[in-house]
Amino acid sequence: MIDGALPYLRCPNCEQPVRRVERALRCPAGHSFDMAKQGYADLSAGRLPHVGDTAEMVADRADFLAAGHYDFIGDALTPYAAGGFVVDAGVGTGSYLARVLDAAPEAVGLGLDVSKPALRRAARAHPRAAAVLADLWRPLPIVSGSARIVLNVFAPRNGAEFRRVLRPDGVLLVVTPGADHLGELIATSGMIRVDPDKQARVREALDEYFALETARPHERALHLTAAEARTLIGMTPSARHVPAAGLPTADLRVTASVLVSAYRPR
User: Fold this and answer.
1) Residues with Cβ < 8 Å from 261, sequence gap 6 or more?
2) What pLDDT shows up at residue 238?
3) pLDDT of residue 167
4) pLDDT by residue (tens digit) across 120-137?
5) Which of 127, 131, 142, 148 is at 20 to 30 A from 41, Cα to Cα?
6) What is the pLDDT of residue 193?
7) 42-52 b/e with 16+ CB inside 10 Å = b?
8) Angle in degrees, 0-180, between the axes of helices 226-234 and 55-66, rounded to the nearest 10
9) 198-244: per-residue pLDDT in tens?
10) pTM exceeding the 0.85 threshold for the entire prediction
11) For the chain, which ranges sit under pLDDT 50?
12) Would you tell me how many other CB atoms lie within 10 Å of the CB of residue 189?
């Protein structure tokens, strides 16, 4: 549903507004950007240095989230839902963006990602959500001061750009893994461990642009079958590192621990 997001999009080359012309987005300067048949638009403006999550990782994430294991994360985000423009930076399958839009009937959403398999799903995640191919480390193809909410769930954080696109009364919601996140699975499978200094590094990186308002931990005990645990591994970067011998073969209890931080623009 790209049309609802058009007032908030800008050309990544010249920063002028874009409009839809059949299956493309165009700006007054003549720059044109294709729309995929799956519904997302390509506003990457050049070759991307990486392609993001693979189709297999995205499929595993979709299955795991559909089972409800991470619903508690969506529950922690919905109290901030409000009308206006909601950006999900690193949208993945669009699950969390859809939860926030469900809680805010007047809101319009936009998901950004570099993974085309993820964007194919995000473009269908909600009737009021659009999906755009864009690199979070480059200037975002979004009008300055237009977003009421920026979501950032387990994704890279570009503090300068998040600050630029947020309204003065906007909020940045960052979800990062806690020190104990998936600890039992990490211990038995060889998954990549959470950096113990991650929370401090995130705050330090954002401090120039944002003031931390709240930081609330959320934790759940997940009772997973062996198949679900393998799916959980498969949806993470650890999918590339865990050997076959490390994959779970029995049911297990896994701790899911995250920190949901709300930042206000400085």
Assistant:
1) 173, 174, 175, 176, 202, 203, 212, 214, 215, 216
2) 84
3) 98
4) 999 999 999 999 999 999
5) 148
6) 85
7) bbbbeebeeeb
8) 130
9) 889 999 999 999 999 999 999 999 999 999 999 999 999 887 788 87
10) yes
11) none
12) 21
**Distance between CA atoms of residues 139 and 118, nearest Å:** 20
> Cβ(42)–Cβ(32) under 8 Å?
no
Give the whole-angstrom CA distance, residue 265 versus residue 233: 35
Please give the pLDDT value at position 152. Answer: 98
Place of tokens 């998954």: 191
126, two tokens: 């909600």
